[in-house]
Amino acid sequence: MPSEPALSLSGVNAFYGDSHILHDICLELPQGEILALLGRNGAGKTTCMNAIAGLLPRRSGRIAVGRQDISALSPEAICRAGVALVPQGRRMFRSLSVEENLTVARRAAPPAGQRPWTIAQIYDLFPRLQERRANLAGQLSGGEQQMLAIGRALMTAPRVLLMDEPTEGLAPQIVAEVGAIVRNLRAAGLSVILVEQHMAFALGLADQVVVINTGRVVERGAASALRADMSRLEEQLGIH
Ligand SMILES: Nc1ncnc2c1ncn2[C@@H]1O[C@H](COP(=O)(O)OP(=O)(O)OP(=O)(O)O)[C@@H](O)[C@H]1O
């Protein structure tokens, strides 16, 4: 029997004040897979990530991690349930050092069955962060900041990683490095939702693809099938 999804959304609607942004979103992230969430600017991708992470009031719908319903939980409890957000813009404490940023992100009690990451393991994954351990986060390059944002998320011992535009503003060589890191995380057993503007990057990594437009799912399928029909995807994303 197939295992239950790592994360599932059914009938999720979300609002900013009176603006209805997400409409009846349904998706399933299989265990140990990467799901690319694509869409034009303003389609609702970040709103969807924030809704999963508990950062928005939700009016309806169910969000579950494995069998656990997290729909009504606080952001802290959703994090304890094993969901970590790597936010767009890589929010971090700019006036703390790299190592201090990692230390404050560590949680005392990881989710049941999850082993916490140690700072040494983060440095194994990102040797560059070890070299820069005493530097202030605000002094790092864009690529290093992305590594630190991922490292901070890993310190919470997640099962599911939500990555919101991790390649934004990065040079092509660093984009390739981020791709290799995401593959390593999947190999380590994490399940990942990857929000991306960079379609080729996302399709190269993803197992599944979901496209949203004006807050509604308009396309979904295996990445391999969509790679074979790029023109259809480009149409959905308004790329000509
Ligand atoms: N804090 C807010 N208050 C009101 N409306 C908002 C707020 N944040 C986003 N929106 C609106 O919600 C819609 C979805 O925005 P969202 O940021 O989720 O899109 P996105 O797909 O992530 O876009 P981008 O690729 O530009 O980051 C847009 O119409 C946006 O104007």
TrEMBL record:
**Cited InterPro entries:** AAA+_ATPase, ABC_transporter-like_ATP-bd, ABC_transporter-like_CS, BCAA_Transport_ATP-bd_LivF, P-loop_NTPase
- Give the top-rank taxon of the lineage listed in the UniProt record for this protein: Bacteria
> GO BP, one example?
L-amino acid transport
**Domain ABC transporter span(s) in chain numbering:** 7-239
Q: Name one GO molecular function term.
A: ATP hydrolysis activity
Tell whether Nucleotide-binding is among the UniProt keywords.
Answer: yes
Pfam families found in the cross-reference section: ABC_tran (PF00005)
Keywords (A to Z) from UniProt = Amino-acid transport, ATP-binding, Nucleotide-binding, Transport
Does the record carry Mitochondrion as a key word?
Answer: no
Q: Which SMART domains match?
A: AAA
Family membership noted in the UniProt record: Belongs to the ABC transporter superfamily.
- What's this protein's name? Amino acid/amide ABC transporter ATP-binding protein 2 (HAAT family)
Source organism per entry reads Chelatococcus asaccharovorans
Q: What is the lineage of its organism?
A: Bacteria, Pseudomonadati, Pseudomonadota, Alphaproteobacteria, Hyphomicrobiales
